[in-house]
Design a protein that fits this description.
The complex is a heterodimer of chains A (about 250) and B (about 240). Chain A is mainly α and about 250 residues long. Chain A has one domain. In chain A, about 85% of the residues lie in helices and about 0% in strands. Chain A contains 9 helices and no strands. In chain A, helix 4 runs antiparallel to helix 6 and helix 4 packs antiparallel against helix 9. Chain A is elongated. With about 240 residues, chain B is of the alpha/beta class. Chain B has 2 domains: about 160 residues, P-loop containing nucleotide triphosphate hydrolases (Rossmann fold), CATH 3.40.50; about 60 residues, no CATH class. Helix content of chain B is about 40%, strand content about 25%. Chain B is built from 9 helices and 10 strands. In chain B, the strands form 2 sheets. Chain B has a 6-stranded mixed β-sheet with strand order 6-7-8-3-9-10, with helices on both faces. In chain B, strand 7, helix 6 and strand 8 form a beta-alpha-beta unit. Chain B is globular, with a radius of gyration of 18 Å. Classes of the chains: A mainly alpha (about 250), B alpha/beta (about 240). Chains A and B meet through helix 5 of A and helix 2 and helix 3 of B.
């Protein structure tokens, strides 16, 4: 019953937050600020994680293929598909849940406890829409863009690691990388990325928005936002995979 | 004029406001005083629409504020200015942008018109040349003054001040009091002030409502307070004096 109530509250919060911006000019300013903050500030962490994930995936999968009857150049294809289908969208989303989600929850939570949200309401502004909508719009652009960036870097990481480890020649690895590419895997990955962006932003914003108390509660809201966003990502990862890959 | 009739409010079954009725007149500073937990803040939050009472009526110049649609409520809210206890300035915006916020949100004025009005409001609260400062860089008293400038930016009909003196030194407190009193008369605003500060009450109040245990226990003016034989009010004033 408690979880049903929470879900109901979340749906009502979405109803208040999503819609036509009250003043487009102000929405645009906030959107640009949030897009810059989410995208630009996340390039570093996404770059590091993507390169290492690709590198480790190439070594681990290569280790499993050694001695098998599967030709080693297939390694490139397997690593590519793993990166595009799972690692880039899901791991990037999990990292963003920690970085962007925590930030959204603490920013909105601080606004709530310092009465800035009340100030907006008293002025006659729909505070939920004013605060959340630009962040949602920014995240559904920034996170999929970061996922695409991560796809390239993780495959680059694979090339770097096979070059150093010598599991397979770089030319052989690239041959596998270019083999039987199916564009649907990009559609699938981006569908996940859009879904995860929506979940991260709205779950984190909802936690921030219902914060009451002081600094301690803001910290708790931030932690809950990250944990629940991660759970939602994993859950929807499974659902979307089931729906899209086995339709 | 703001008129409250039989306002009742409770939280999780615990009643905190009991049949509160009061009138706050135009062009006057009306104080709501009382000890912490007496219901002042809940009453103010109910008046501005942040809390919804279980029963009762709130009228702003004859317009019902409770039984109307959200969009209609927004129109009345745009006529309300509020000074919060902590200022409630937007952290990410400069002083200029904080004061400009309601103007940019609710008017179609040009940048020049907005800046002119912002500068007028900042000058009115003696904060010229502070446009580019951020809330984190200014003192508590300055935050209150920026809060007042933001509250009056849209020429409000109603001004609500929640503990305007809390956390301020006595000199800054008096300056804030004088500013609120001047603005109330100058713009003919209906001003409602929540306060513990009896010096402010005796200096600038036109009307006083004493809240005790969630009830509007005593109503009158500052002259009547001294002559009152209301024990709870006398106890509160005596405690404030020492």
């Amino acid at each position: 019953m408690k979880y049903l109530n929470l879900f109901g509250e979340y749906l009502l919060f979405l109803k208040r937050s999503i819609g036509k911006p009250e003043k487009f000019k102000m929405f645009r300013e906030l959107f640009v600020r949030d897009l810059y903050k989410m995208g630009n500030d996340s390039f570093g962490i996404v770059s590091i994680i993507s390169i290492f994930i690709g590198a480790v995936a190439a070594i681990q999968i290569g280790y499993q293929l050694v001695g098998s009857l599967v030709p080693m150049y297939v390694l490139g294809r397997i690593v590519r598909d793993s990166n595009i289908l799972e690692f880039s969208p899901t791991v990037t989303a999990l990292v963003m849940a920690g970085k962007i989600g925590g930030n959204i929850a603490s920013e909105i939570g601080t606004m709530k406890v310092s009465e800035q949200i009340d100030a907006l309401e008293i002025m006659g502004v729909n505070s939920a829409k004013h605060v959340v909508l630009p962040k949602l719009a920014a995240s559904i652009i920034a996170i999929p863009a970061l996922v695409i960036y991560s796809m390239f870097l993780s495959n680059l990481g694979g090339i770097i690691s096979v070059n150093f480890s010598g599991i397979v020649s770089v030319s052989g690895y690239i041959q596998g990388l270019l083999m039987d590419f199916d564009g649907f895997s990009i559609t699938y990955a981006l569908t996940k990325a859009f879904t995860f962006s929506f979940l991260i932003t709205t779950i984190s914003a909802a936690h921030g928005y219902k914060t009451e108390g002081g600094a301690l509660e803001v910290g708790w809201a931030s932690t809950r936002a990250v944990v629940q966003s991660c759970i939602a990502i994993i859950f929807f990862d499974f659902i979307l995979t089931q729906i899209m890959l086995y339709k | 004029m703001i008129e409250l009739k039989n306002i009742n409010k409770s939280f999780e079954g615990k009643q905190v406001l009991f049949d509160v009725s009061a009138q706050f007149e135009k062009g006057k500073c009306s104080f709501v005083i009382g000890a912490s937990g007496g219901g002042k803040s809940v009453l103010m939050k109910t008046m501005v629409g942040l809390l919804v009472p279980e029963s009762g009526n709130i009228n702003f110049d004859g317009r019902d504020f409770l039984n109307i649609a959200y969009e209609e409520k927004k129109v009345i809210r745009q006529e309300i200015g509020m000074l919060f206890q902590g200022g409630a300035l937007f952290d990410s915006l400069s002083v200029e942008d904080n004061v400009a916020f309601p103007l940019r949100m609710f008017t179609n004025w040009s940048k020049e018109q907005v800046l002119e009005r912002v500068n007028f409001c900042l000058k009115r609260v003696n904060l010229e040349n502070s446009n580019q400062l951020f809330p984190s860089n200014i003192s508590g008293g300055m935050k209150k003054r920026v809060g007042i400038a933001r509250a009056i930016a849209l020429n409000p009909k109603y001004l609500f001040c929640d503990e305007p003196n809390s956390g301020l030194d006595p000199i800054t407190s008096r300056l804030i009091d004088e500013l609120i009193a001047e603005i109330t008369q100058e713009f003919n605003i209906t001003t409602v002030i929540n306060s513990h500060d009896m010096k402010s009450v005796f200096d600038m109040s036109d009307q006083v409502t004493f809240m005790y245990k969630g009830k509007a226990w005593w109503k009158g003016n500052k002259e009547a307070i001294r002559d009152s034989n209301c024990k709870e009010l006398i106890d509160f004033i005596k405690a404030s004096e020492f």
